[in-house]
Amino acid sequence: MAIVNERGFPLYDMMGYHLGWRGAHALDGDLPRRQERMHGVMTLLACTAVGGDADACLPAAAAMELVDKFAEIHDDVQEGNPQRNERDAVWWVWGPAQAINAGDGMHALGRLALLRLADRGVPDERVFDVVRLVDKAGLRACEGRFRDLEAQERIDLSVEAYMRLATDKTGALLGCAMQIGALVGGAGAETGNALATCGERLGIALQVRSDLAALWGGNGNSQPNVEVLNKKKLIPVVYALENATVSEKRALGEIYFKRVLESDDALKLREVIDGLGARAACEKMADTLKAESLAALEIEDVAPEGKSRIREYIGMLTSSR
Amino acid sequence: MAIVNERGFPLYDMMGYHLGWRGAHALDGDLPRRQERMHGVMTLLACTAVGGDADACLPAAAAMELVDKFAEIHDDVQEGNPQRNERDAVWWVWGPAQAINAGDGMHALGRLALLRLADRGVPDERVFDVVRLVDKAGLRACEGRFRDLEAQERIDLSVEAYMRLATDKTGALLGCAMQIGALVGGAGAETGNALATCGERLGIALQVRSDLAALWGGNGNSQPNVEVLNKKKLIPVVYALENATVSEKRALGEIYFKRVLESDDALKLREVIDGLGARAACEKMADTLKAESLAALEIEDVAPEGKSRIREYIGMLTSSR
Predict the structure, then answer these.
(1) Which of A64, B73, B215, B227 could form a disulfide with B103 if both were Cys (CB 3.0 to 4.6 A apart)?
(2) How far off is chain B from A247, nearest CA to CA, in Å?
(3) Domain range list for chain B
(4) For the segment A215-254, what is each residue's pLDDT rounded down to a tens digit?
(5) How far apart are CA A44 and CA B62, in angstroms?
(6) CATH code of the domain occupying A9-24+35-320
(7) Interface-testing mutation among B101, B106, B127, B129, with chain A (most A C-beta atoms within 10 A)
(8) What is the predicted ipTM?
(9) A189 forms bridges with which residues in the sheet?
């Protein structure tokens, strides 16, 4: 928190707002109800699970949170999402130009946080490895966002291509969080890779669940949300397009041929998709991914207690979203 | 170049386009006439001027170029500049959402390039210092862009506040380029700081000259450019607002009170500013800044040959823009 607050500058108000610490324009009234810190928590859980010191790992956890939240801020601008965590998105409050700055600044701050690892006794070589991994994961997330935007204007995205895209866009950062947590905790490369797989699979599972919620609603809201109207290639849509008969494809194509979707189109879309059993199929995908994530944990270097804490957290994440 | 090209992916086509290596959409027809590599060149000149090895410094030079160009790509989106280097800006070709990705990806690539210093025999401690300096400079550039955008909606920006803004927005990265060049070349902290000042003052001088060109045209173009229409607080405008009589202030205020400026407004603006001698005053500011930049070079650790090469390059930069 000190990392963002110490600079005392309106640029940092935007960041503090996105992180859920303050209201818009210094008003304290509209703090978010819940604020997820999944990337930081996973970094710390992975570190302690391999017998590492959570304290030494704090800079890495902070960095992963900042890098993930930077990506969120830019993603909201790119997708035109007016809301994030049930509040106005940063770009909606300060405009897209300043939101780009808030994201860029957060990106730089995340990197600065990472370098503090060297002050906490983590060996130089390891700090370099960690910095490199975070940069590579950030780049993969960026590649994933690129292809995600490209896919909005296409119809022929396969389930396989979706999985590759989600692996980069959502899996890479969560995998990186667990991997660097393990490395900072003193684990070897093999253990680091196993935990990277654990985080990556979990990330994709959460993406699939979030796509399902976009269509059928979460939190008691049953309207398809803005992502559907943006023609985002949500996994149930991708699945349906791949498994539709010619006449169903025509019905879906007609909806997607429109330049802008309306609420009615979204409901019609959901009807066709429902008929194809896409919901159940995608729920099964999410379960499989979660199982793969948990299976990756089954290695010797992770102590039983650490395993059960990670399992518990994964259970919480996959049931609440 | 390998850093950007090796990934073979359309995201990198955007980057290659902005860097002037390729046309839009794989057309080779429209390469830019000139492409400035000031930040990389300055990094290398500073390194060799203190007796360092240019080869070992290449990753730092590449990184400074990538970080500067990332900032340019985002700046063009934020300001709505349709052109850069006499070609369409990245966001104009690929849209703002994908241009944000191109910038973010370039930011991550810049950081990855920097880490290659460790493979070229630069001691760990020094690499950490360099990485930290680049992140801090990147953050300052971002703060500068933030205040620059804020200033577009204000009239009461003082010359002093402009200088602080330009120091962050333009000076920080060029100062950082020379500073890390010197550090990689083996110089001590004091020499590094002197060269940071050299680059920083030069950066501000170039910003002042670029502001002058925006109003009175460079390259034979005598129309005020898009920055003027965007109500950007160019230094001649700032100077004029600070030195205007009440009735001149009213004339300027009337122009700036408009939501959007037209070409006619820009010409009227220039007329008022001309009457106040702002052009000559700002040209003098640029000369003073250049002299400060050159004065900072006058330290023992910089060999005479190195000095004269840097002087020559500074002369070239400040005469062509």
Answers:
(1) B73
(2) 33
(3) 2-25+34-300
(4) 887 655 567 777 887 788 899 999 998 999 998 888 888 8
(5) 34
(6) 1.10.600.10
(7) B101
(8) 0.88
(9) none
